[in-house]
Amino acid sequence: MKHRIIIVGGGVMGSSTAYHLRKCGYEGQIIVFEKDPAYEYASTPRSAGGIRQLFTTAINITLSRYSLQQYKQFSQTMKINGDPAEIDFKQRGYLFLATDDMLSAMEKQQKLQNELGVPSRFLEPAELLAIIPELNPTDLAGGLFCPEDGYLDPYSVMQAYKYEARKKDVEYVSEEVDMILHDRGQVTGVKTKSGRVEEAKVVMNCAGAWGAELSEKMGLPLPIVALKRQIFLFDPAVPLKNPLPLTVDPTGVYFRHEGDRIITGFSDHVKPGYDFDWKRSHFEELWPILAHRITNFESLKLESGWAGLYDYNLKDQNAIIGSHPEMRGYYMALGFSGHGMQQAPGVGLGLAELICKGAYETIDLTPLRFERFAENDLVLEHAIV
Ligand SMILES: Cc1cc2nc3c(=O)[nH]c(=O)nc-3n(C[C@H](O)[C@H](O)[C@H](O)COP(=O)(O)OP(=O)(O)OC[C@H]3O[C@@H](n4cnc5c(N)ncnc54)[C@H](O)[C@@H]3O)c2cc1C
């Protein structure tokens, strides 16, 4: 196939897809439209970069497991100016702390994870202390831990995909796509805000939190909204003895090391919308939870933080990947609901296989098809952070 492909959005999804299209041997022209080439508001650089296999559905576990293998060898397989593309992947583990009432669900999750090859294991409170000596386990029954997991630098991942894609003649255009054009149920191209029209028989919507709006303009609404999420960076007065795994408290508050400091966040209830207003005062809600869990967090200096957007799927908090049944040539990779970094390598590969080979080969992504909503075949994931 040699016809032109247009990708809307050059974040980690769009860039991974462009890279994998070339890797799969796609020889036609590929244009990526990116409205914000500095990536000031894109979700990718604002992400916490957590990479975990501790999911509760087979598709999410499989996707993360694949991506984790890619991230482990990223600096050997990807290059920037001939140098290894470093992504600072710290495999310090992922840890979901649990109270008594969470144990039976956690047992089921672990069983599925282990069946799919994930080396997750349940830790008793005493074992938790070996990992985090400063932890307060008094109200905990234990935790589910996966030592292979960890966190990385999302911006570097995105830039490496982009660099390799551009090296293989993928063109990045700094313009905002206003409309995806179509005629009689077939995509025909895009029109940008400046009025430029580019024709293409395949258009991929990788526009993150802005993607649903673009789809709606074509008359194809998606159950996705933009939701603000905040991250706080602080410096504890007394440093911790060990580097932290990405740790999720039973309240949903998560924290991990960022250098010598700590980043933390929480999924609070906010109205959907493009809101980037970081509220320092919000930390007052998190602090008691943090101080209760880790004694060293009682005394700290809040340094800074930022807000970013989840492209949040209201139906089942999972991605929508693949073609749209009502529009030939229209593909989507949207709705990641806060777990896109750990899916980007597998999603880019899957979309590339769909285009180049006509079907998914490496990972079957059909559970994440758009049609699942009409078929009432939702992918209900219970480990959303
Ligand atoms: C605070 C926070 C914490 C997170 N933590 C994690 C985590 O720990 N682990 C994890 O796996 N995931 C995490 N995520 C989610 C992850 O960051 C996203 O799922 C992922 O980055 C989505 O990538 P994307 O390429 O789809 O979106 P984006 O990075 O937003 O890229 C989309 C791009 O499309 C461009 N665009 C939009 N509309 C148009 C248009 N009309 N024309 C041209 N360009 C357009 C935008 O400018 C943007 O650059 C987090 C997200 C946030 C906000």
What's the helix and strand layout?
Elements: E1 5-8, H1 12-23, E2 30-33, E3 50-51, H2 58-72, H3 74-77, E4 79-80, E5 83-84, E6 94-98, H4 103-115, E7 121-123, H5 125-131, E8 142-146, E9 150-151, H6 154-167, E10 171-173, E11 177-183, E12 186-192, E13 197-199, E14 202-205, H7 211-217, E15 224-236, E16 246-248, E17 254-258, E18 261-266, H8 283-293, E19 300-313, E20 320-324, E21 327-334, H9 344-357
Parallel strand pairs: 1-2, 1-14, 2-10, 6-16, 14-21
Antiparallel strand pairs: 3-9, 4-5, 6-8, 7-8, 11-12, 12-13, 15-18, 15-19, 16-17, 17-18, 20-21
Bound molecules: flavin-adenine dinucleotide (FAD).
Explain how this protein is built.
This protein is of the alpha+beta class and 385 residues long. Helix content is 25%, strand content 28%. The chain has an eight-stranded mixed beta sheet with strand order 7-8-6-16-17-18-15-19.
